[in-house]
Amino acid sequence: MTFKATTSLPDARAFLGDAPVMAKRRVAEAGAPTDAKQLRVAIVHYWLVSMRGGEKVVEELCRMFPQADIFTLVCNRDRISDFLKTRNIRTSFLQKIPGAQRHYTKMLPLMPFALEQFDLQEYDLVLSSESGPAKGIITRADALHVCYCHSPMRYIWDQFHVYRHGLPWVGRALMSITAPMLRAWDVTTASRVDVFVANSDYVASRIRRFYDRGSIVIHPPVATDDFVPGKGKGEFYLYAGQLTTYKRPDIAVRACTEAGRKLVVIGEGEQLAYLKSIAGPTVQFLGHQPFNVLRDHLSRCRALLFPGTEDFGILPVEAMASGRPVLAFDAGGARETVSSPQVGFRFAEQTTEALLETMAAFEEVEDEIDPEAIRAHSLKFSSTVFRERLTSLIEQQLSRRADRSADPFKRRAG
Predict the structure, then answer these.
(1) Side by side, which strands form the sheet with 69-72?
(2) Strand pairing class (69-72; 41-45)
(3) Do domains 36-221+383-413 and 224-381 have the same CATH topology?
């Protein structure tokens, strides 16, 4: 005996469509979170051992989601801000290894294992802050995972050989063995991310290249309100930041030495001794300095020299918030921040000669520079703009996710 269906397919779809609507209503009536501030939120950051650009983003995320817990591989509470010290910070098993707070980078092969040990099953929204490994965490199936990517891991991708050459032979051998496995893990875990947010167009292109994923560009937050424009003509050129090979501080030191221009260098790193050996009497090294000293020098400099390639580069924006122009190498995030002659100049070749030519061109028009116009440009990258754009994105993604869970046919079509 056979039975003939009495309901046509269109009728069945119409009938089935009622169930998700009722389910959605019941969820709302049960008091489920209806906006981002009611969600259980986890912020995952690779390591908290200093206060640089990535950590400033974490601070801003904590202000957006004060209920959030922070997960990080290693934390040095002596080197983070007082604000972050008030947060609930959970570390991995790497924290228990002697010397981890200083030698964490040597533990890179262990980091995938440590990261995947974090239990995030109770969280509705996971925000990973990626430059070191962070996006590889395992979330609940229905959680929203947004990755704010400062950069795909440089030391296993485009900067692999630079980092490898800086290691002793044992480190080089170990990195050669482990890097292929880390790259495979890094690519695989890109699928664990629902939405990639890049901090610049430059990083967005690298996300596409290494992970074959699209991304939305939201520039990182810059605390422009912490800076005020300096008065009058600057007194010296300024280089600030880590004294490492890829940032090319040697170009700034050589250029100012050859031109006989005053240069103040703020920062520390493995190149310090070498830079001192090539510097002339017009170059002054101040070493590591607190924020108030950096802010003072930004407001008094003639221009910030920025000869390296950065994924975004917060320091140039801080200089512009201080009303000072930037002379930057034409690569990376500088193309998006030093975007007009009113705020600075970019040089096409990463050489001393190119910077010298740029300094000469800048000095010809230096008296015409308008500090207030430079500061107005910097406000495009303020913390307020960052919060507004990221909040809008998260709310949009949560809304789409709710719609899909409420209608199985939409989910199938999506």
Answers:
(1) 89-91, 69-72, 41-45, 125-130, 144-149, 195-198, 216-217
(2) parallel
(3) yes
In tens digits, what is the pLDDT along the chain, a chain of 414 residues?
Answer: 444 444 443 443 333 334 333 333 333 333 445 466 689 999 999 999 988 888 999 999 999 999 999 999 999 999 899 999 999 999 999 999 998 888 887 788 889 999 999 999 999 999 999 987 899 999 999 999 999 999 998 877 877 777 777 777 877 888 888 888 989 999 999 999 999 999 999 999 999 999 999 999 999 999 999 999 988 788 899 999 989 888 999 999 999 999 999 999 999 988 999 999 999 999 999 998 988 999 999 999 999 999 999 999 999 999 999 999 999 999 999 999 999 999 999 999 999 999 999 999 999 999 999 999 999 999 999 999 999 999 999 999 998 887 776 665 554 443
Q: Answer for the pair 315, 242: CB distance below 8 angstroms, yes or no.
A: no
Number of residues written out for the chain: 414
Q: E strands, 88-156, where?
A: 89-91, 125-130, 144-149
CA-CA distance, 262 to 325, in Å (whole number)? Answer: 16
Residues facing 135 on adjacent strands: none
Secondary-structure percent of the chain, ordered helix, strand, coil, rounded to 5? 50, 15, 35
Q: Which CATH number is correct for 36-221+383-413, 3.40.50.2300, 3.40.109.10, 3.40.50.300, 3.40.50.2000?
A: 3.40.50.2000
* Cα–Cα nearest to 107, from 133, 127, 137, 71: 133
Distances (CA, A) of 374 to 56, 64, 74, 185, 332: 22, 28, 38, 43, 20
Query: What is the CATH number that goes with domain 224-381?
Result: 3.40.50.2000
Q: Is the CA virtual torsion 334, 338, 344, 348 positive or negative?
A: positive
Phi and psi torsions of 24, nearest 5°: -65, -40
| Domain regions of the chain by residue span | 36-221+383-413, 224-381
State how far the Cα of 59 lies from the Cα of 54, in Å rounded to an integer.
9
**Is-contact 405 411, C-beta < 8 A?**
yes
